[in-house]
Amino acid sequence: MITDKTYFENQTNEINQIIYNNSSKVSFLKKMTIDNYNKEKINEYYNDYFFNFPFTIEDASEEIGISIFATELFELYYNLDEKMNQVSSLRIKEVMENRKKFIPENHLDLIIDYIDEFIHRMVYSYDKLLENTKKHHFFKNIDDEKIILLNLLKRYKSIVNDETKQIDVFWSIKLTKTLSDLIVKIFIEFIEQRLNILTINFEQTNFEYKTTYVENKIHQIKWNGTQQDFCELIIELEKNNWIEKIQDGDRKKLVNSITKIFNIDNTKKNENSDPNNSFYQLLKGEYENKERIYPFLENSKYKRKFDLIKKING
């Protein structure tokens, strides 16, 4: 039984390392850009991506590619204001400016974000993912969950074993055959575990039961500042050698660790927002001339709190 997304931590760590080992081979993927900034449309795009088991088959590839659409979808979705029906004009202007300076290799973190987001939805919002998957024309009038999962399982296993084909996991992100297969194997394991629950026979339980356990006894420290304040603190501690350098691909893991100790719920933008993910987006920053930058630090409205931290020797 898969009760927590940390179940797949070993697989995602392997995927992250492969992605960063290919950082010099990222191409620009030509896909449509977002031109409808209505909240309903942005939510529709998001649901299509993260609440559906992927099924499209494509030729095997040795290429990683990132499109502008992929970067904009995440950026716009996580900046939606509940009180507005569409993205603000200021945010749209920023999107247009970012299109002019889009460099694919500066957005490798995004691939990791997409994989983590899908696994998160698959584990914690499986009911919605299943309902959306049922809506596909090839599953029309089929309500039996086992039939749907068995068909997906057969499709996924056949593609993993076919050296010439792969699953198009994310329409706006191109992955190599190796990466696609590793992600699809995560889907396979999840589906197999789900089928075991649905069809379990106590006299023939020959599958491995891998448990996941999350320690809940940690006393969390309440953070009283803003997310930007917290982010600045981590940046300054790293810059001045108080903490070790954050390696590429490790920022998500770092945020997961930090937010187990620090409670940042007071920084939520609205009732339904995820402060941990928002904090991660801040700490991820952006790339400019192959250097990671943090635009909020340069914003005249932000007043620095930790810029006087001294550098530690060594």
3D architecture notes:
By secondary structure, this protein is mainly alpha-helical. Helix content is 48%, strand content 8%. It has helices at residues 9-21, 39-50, 68-77, 89-100, 108-124, 126-134, 145-160, 177-199, 227-239, 251-261, 275-284, 295-298, and strands at residues 26-28, 57-59, 64-66, 165-167, 173-174, 221-222, 262-263, 286-288, 291-293. It has a three-stranded mixed β-sheet. The protein has a two-stranded antiparallel sheet with strand order 2-4. Strands 6-7 form a two-stranded parallel ribbon. Helix 10 packs across helix 11. The chain starts with 8 loop residues before the first helix and ends in a 16-residue tail after the last helix. The mean pLDDT is 87.
Concise overview:
By secondary structure, the protein is mostly helical.
How would a textbook summarize the main sheet? Answer: 3 strands, mixed
Structural class: mainly alpha
Distance between the termini: 46 Å
Helix proportion range: 40-55%
Radius of gyration: 21 Å
Count up the helices: 12
Question: What does the secondary structure layout of this molecule look like, with pairings?
Answer:
Elements lengths: L8 H13 L4 E3 L10 H12 L6 E3 L4 E3 L1 H10 L11 H12 L7 H17 L1 H9 L10 H16 L4 E3 L5 E2 L2 H23 L21 E2 L4 H13 L11 H11 E2 L11 H10 L1 E3 L2 E3 L1 H4 L16
Parallel strand pairs: 1-3, 6-7
Antiparallel strand pairs: 2-4, 3-5, 8-9
Name its key features.
single chain; 314 residues; mainly alpha; three-stranded mixed beta sheet; two-stranded antiparallel sheet; 12 helices; 48% helix
